[in-house]
Amino acid sequence: MRNLTLLTVPLLAGCAGRHNWLSSAGAEADRVEGLFWVLLIGAAVIWSAVIGAAVYAQRRQVDPGLEHQARWFIVWGGAVIPTVLVCALLIWGLVILRDITPDKGDLTVRVDGERWWWRVTYDGPDGDVVTANEIRLPLDQTALFRLTADDVIHSFWVPAIGGKMDMIPGRETTLALTPNKTGNWGGLCAEYCGGAHALMRFDTVVMEPDAFDAWLAAEAAPARVAPDDPGFAVFRDEGCGACHTIRGTDARGPVGPDLTHVGARARLGAGIYAMTPDNLARWITDTHAMKPDADMPPYPDLSGARLEALVTFLLSLDHAE
Ligand code: CUA
Predict the structure, then answer these.
(1) Does the C-beta of 275 come closer than 6 Å to ligand 1?
(2) pLDDT-based confidence at 3, cuts 50/70/90?
(3) pLDDT value for 9
(4) Which of 42, 227, 297, 307 is 20 to 30 Å from the Cα of 60, by its Cα?
(5) Which atom in ligand 1 lies closest to the alpha carbon of residue 113?
């Protein structure tokens, strides 16, 4: 008993917190959770019945007169009832799958799985609003996710809010998420996709609809960059704009995460580190120590005032007026 407790406590602790699909914060997660409990309890009941029957059969004297009943038991218990149950579960599962992969939502969010981060694009009123590694959603509205991948297969999953879905290069899959609790719910890549798979995470921030609209408007605005910003001069000299875009400037690189409002994000490195000056400086100079296999090359020669100016500049790219 004690061994069992030692085994289950860490397992249950792993379920706690913002990745917990059993304390669901979304309509789709509720559906999946319902299916899970029926499967679990149903399996426990059937398992108990089968073991009970086996124990009963072992203790009973063999009675040749019962052969007809035994055949009846095998046909119903071994074929008819399992077939009916499995078909019913299949139909139920297909109905859930149909409902969580609709064609339309209250808003559309495109997410591309990159190595190893998330490119996030909202359909804003004036066109695409591109950001990265942080998804914000309005409470009680159905967000339709259109998912694809750049080069390898990933799997998009926000456990607390809904089901998971593969992201496949050259194909688009869809998934609906209807969050019903505000908060910051963790998201992650649920399929092994290469070196930094375990470090491919994101924040899913569920907000009141008014706050979400204000956030999207701020996110859609171009960055405000002073022409003589010393940090932007470093950004240019080092060629950062070849990979990264800062809308409102001539930095238009399509490869890495959009940095237009990077200072407004809570985390860096695809949801793995707090967005602090120290972490950002280390990310720029020693990228692969923080995230092995990240595609971004480190800039170990940046230091002192130039590094500080670059970090200050990047953190200034927030939503502040
Ligand atoms: Cu992306 Cu695992």
Answers:
(1) no
(2) low
(3) 47
(4) 42
(5) 1
Q: What is the dihedral of CA 248, 254, 255, 259, to 10 degrees?
A: 20
Q: How far apart are CA 91 and CA 1, in angstroms?
A: 39
Summarize pLDDT for 248-270 with one digit per residue, the tens. Answer: 999 999 999 999 999 999 999 99
Q: Pick from 238, 237, 239, 251: which is nearest to 317 by CA?
A: 251
Q: Is any ligand 1 atom within 6 A of the Cβ of residue 200?
A: yes
pLDDT-derived band at 126 (thresholds 50, 70, 90) equals confident
Atom number in ligand 1 closest to CA 115: 1
Place of tokens 């580190």: 273
H or E segment and range at residue 187: strand 183-189
Q: What is the Cα 66 distance to its own chain's centre?
A: 56
Gap from CA of 174 to ligand 1 centroid (Å): 17
Nearest CA to ligand 1 atom 1: 154
Residue-by-residue DSSP string for 217-265? HHHHSPP---TT-HHHHHHHHTTGGGT-B-TTSS-B--SS---TTGGG-
Per-residue model confidence as pLDDT tens digits over 206-242 = 999 999 999 999 999 999 998 899 999 999 999 999 9
Q: Cβ(231)–Cβ(295) under 8 Å?
A: no
Q: What strand order describes the sheet that includes 164-167? A: 134-138, 201-207, 183-189, 154-157, 164-167
Ligand 1 centroid – CA 148 distance (Å): 12
Kindly tell me the burial class for residue 190, based on how many C-beta atoms sit within 10 Å of its own C-beta (0-12, 13-18, 19 or more): middle
DSSP H stretches of helix in the chain: 2-15, 27-59, 67-75, 81-100, 209-220, 230-237, 277-285, 287-290, 304-315
C-beta separation of 317 from 221 below 8 A? no
CA dist 247 and 150 (Å) reads: 22
